[in-house]
Design goal:
About 15% of the residues lie in helices and about 45% in strands. With about 240 residues, the chain is of the alpha/beta class. It folds into three domains: about 30 residues; about 80 residues, Pectate Lyase C-like (3 Solenoid); about 90 residues, no CATH class. The strands form two sheets. A nine-stranded mixed sheet has the order 1-4-7-3-9-11-13-15-17. Strands 5-6-2-8-10-12-14-16-18 form a nine-stranded mixed sheet, with no helix packed on it.
Length: about 240
Amino acid sequence: MKLSNIILAGISLLLVGGLIASNLALNKEYNEMDKNDSYWMFGKISEQPFKHIIMEGGNLTQIIYEPDENCSVRINKRWLDLKKDSIKVKVQNDTLYLQFPANLTYSIKKEDKSLSQLIRIFSPNLLTVNGNNTQILLGRFKQKKISINLKGKSELNLESALTEFDTLHITLSDSSVSTLSVTNKAVGSKILRVQYVKALINDWSQLRLGKCLIRTMLLYAGDSTSVEFSGATINTVKH
């Protein structure tokens, strides 16, 4: 047999062997996967309990928080393959710390749409959120109170699964944006009735409460800020 034929046969065997090994690995991963887990494409990196979140960075992608009976932090498995260990996660004193790499300067959404939802966070109770240059959605939120503090170029959207909300304490600085509303999946009224809001809005930040009916609001707003109210809320605002 010619040497060239031997080389071609060897390459063919290597390619076939690689395909078989890859298929076996995928079958193993599928068989080990929890078929009832809606977020199987997100690998768990922490299951420690927490009640507070502090985030640094991550505003080029999207972080999603949802209530669940168990605490967990999950990262898109494709991100784990591409940027392993680049996101620092730890839990200390009931606080979840998330730190994104400072050199993350390109838009993940434009580069790969499958990475637009990078991290999913779950817990039964969330009391505070602090973020700098971050973007997070609090989805299907079932609590009636929370404290939020954002700075840098941050964005937080709270979509309540309830139509009644007790207390919101919020501080926005730099060019942060926050929106409070009822989730589209909620049954009944799409107006969120809030008992009390205390808001400190600085610099060029924006607070959007146009879909809320607020009973009492204490507002401190800078000259360059933007605050959106419903018509029924305007008379309740105290400066």
